[in-house]
Amino acid sequence: MKRLSVQRHRIFSGRHSFCVGCNSVEKKIYVHLNYTFPCVRLLNATHQIGCQSSLSGNVGVLHELESEENLDWVLTSGPNPPYMVILESRLFTRSIMMKLKEGSGRVAGVVVVAPNTNPPEGFSPHTACPNDNSGVYTENYDPTLAHCNATVWNPLGNGLAYEEFDFPIFSVKDDNDTRVIRQCYQDHNRRVNGSNPQFPLCAMQLRSSMSAVTNTATCKRRNDINFSLTPDRVCDELGDFNIWASSRPMNTTTKGHKEFESVVIAAARMDSRSFFFDIAPGAESTASGIVTLLAAAHALRRATQEAPPNRTILYTFFQGETFDYIGSSRMVYDMENNQFPLDLDNIHSVLEVSQVGLHSDSKLWLHSDPVSRKNSSVKEEVEKLVNGLKSASAGLNVSVDEPDVSQPLPPSSFQRFLLARPIPGVVIGNYRSSFTNRYYESMYDNAEYLNVSYPENMTSEEQLEHFPETVKTLTEVATLVARALYVQAGGNETQLANITADPQIVNQMLYSFLVRANNSWLQQLVPTDFTNHLADRPTNFYVGVIQYFSEPTTLVQYMLANMTGSVVNVTQEDCQKQREDKDDDQSKHLYTYMWVQGAAPPNSTEREGFCVRSTVHRSIAVSPAFELHEYTTSNYSTWTESVWKPITGRIFLVASHDLEMLTLGVGITVLLTSLVLTYVISSKADILFSSGREPTSATY
């Protein structure tokens, strides 16, 4: 069973399709779609969400929806149901989709044409209260703050991504595929002068058959049923790895509490999602925080080495936070159970970088928890952190402020730490009481929205040297975060002037995440065998399942190692064996060694690799629910992803039902006639095919 989103069978050009060796009947009948992005099925403890088709795929007559009023043709009056509805993104609304869902007996599927520019009105298929019931704000913690009673963080959230549809929904780019589909519709299906279209009609088949049903407990139970040596799985748990690094070496082989160790956690999330699988650009919701924290870590490298602060800074990037805080809940669980090199007693405070893409006339807001601030020691440390952030903004083109102290925290990884115990902390974001991100957790939260754009006539190398306005603002934010972290960790304020983020590094990271990872800068920072995974497209921030490669996790791991580590003069063999030389058996407990391919010198194609020594580590980011086998718990994330058969889409012409029946009848008649003739001829074969025998006495 494969997780494939496209089948590339043809190349389309204008109204015509071309293919090499189209001599089979199948290729003459069907036109396969390129670059389709499906909606897939996800499950948790209580229910399932997403989309699916029948095992062989859903087939329907194409109908292009022009307005919401035009729905009547699909739902009631159209003479040839079921229909495969193709619609523009402006019509991909909750109102229309729920009407199609209710009339699903006449709907075979939906194709959404992704626009080339973002819709100005905004669109968020996530819920209005992200991660409700999985954070700290429950009835037990403070009933007045539970379920976003005090603040609706995502007011544009329509919850569409958390609905269940019993038909497939695909997204296609507004390119050659779309032109072929529309031309087929115009030629065969469009009504002319009010009359119904005549057969043959243009039809589409979408196949996205999902194996898992009902909920996570059901699919995990089916996974455990073994009728063969290689049983098929029907679902996999969502998850990957958290990435973390410490500002000074820490023994990672000993788990649990470390005496005399106090850490300030600097956190950001690594994942995002949208309605469609494989499209999760997460520019503001995710990439802005990642880039800011990585740039801050880079800015702190020299200061933490030359004038180390009293406390250790723990740069932490959590994976799976979109789905009920998978990564942060697992780290807290590991700390509570002595499965991490630190425990909760070692945590001094937390600074989390949320959405920090600054647009015109926006500022940064410093959010804290009103409940834990009732504790005097927590309140004192929070005020110290807030004042440190305000002081760090002096001289920068960034303004910071604090919302009403009675306001709860926004959705954040920090909430999972507060669930365990009162810990001082601040979440920094570009919103006061609701997200300013109009495209939260959607396919439109992209480079365009973050204003990361480059002149079209520039080469990739020139773009890496060009700084959009967003680069300048994120550099300022990264400088602010770095200075505040240094002071919070007990560093000397006289060093602050030397702590400044590098705009070139910020630009290179933004380009790698939001435009294309396959660029000359990033190629230098990764091993040779990883370069094949660098894509000529924006990063997909969807967490995925633990069995499969995760692009953002690996990119962050290598970026963080190069931002905070140092180059050591060791051989490739020693580097890959996690040692400085053949007699070294201690360094592996403190450091991680990575051999990267480096750059090629001028006038040479041979790269000069080198070894990076850093404190970067990975820790598992799979919900504790799966380790505890508690698939119905409400304490931890229980999200799983269904396994599916190959996902395909294709268009073809379909004849009328009467003609199909006539053809079938003629075929049956011919078959029966041939059987009768065969029987008659066979029974009379000795007469029909006999020949006279010569007498035995004949001589020649």
From TrEMBL:
In this protein, which residues make up the domain named Nicastrin small lobe?
38-212
Where does it sit, as one GO cellular component term?
plasma membrane
Location in the cell: Membrane
InterPro entries referenced in this protein's UniProt entry, alphabetically = Ncstrn_small, Nicastrin
Q: Which UniProt keywords apply?
A: Glycoprotein, Membrane, Notch signaling pathway, Signal, Transmembrane, Transmembrane helix
One BP annotation, GO? Notch receptor processing
Please state the protein's primary subcellular location. membrane
Q: Topology in the membrane?
A: Single-pass type I membrane protein
Which Pfam families is this protein grouped with? Answer: Ncstrn_small, Nicastrin
Its transmembrane ranges are: 661-681
Keyword Glycoprotein appears in the UniProt entry: yes
Q: Which family does it belong to?
A: Belongs to the nicastrin family.
Protein name as annotated: Nicastrin
Q: Which organism is it from?
A: Gouania willdenowi
Query: Organism classification, top ranks?
Result: Eukaryota, Metazoa, Chordata, Craniata, Vertebrata
State which gene encodes it: LOC114458456
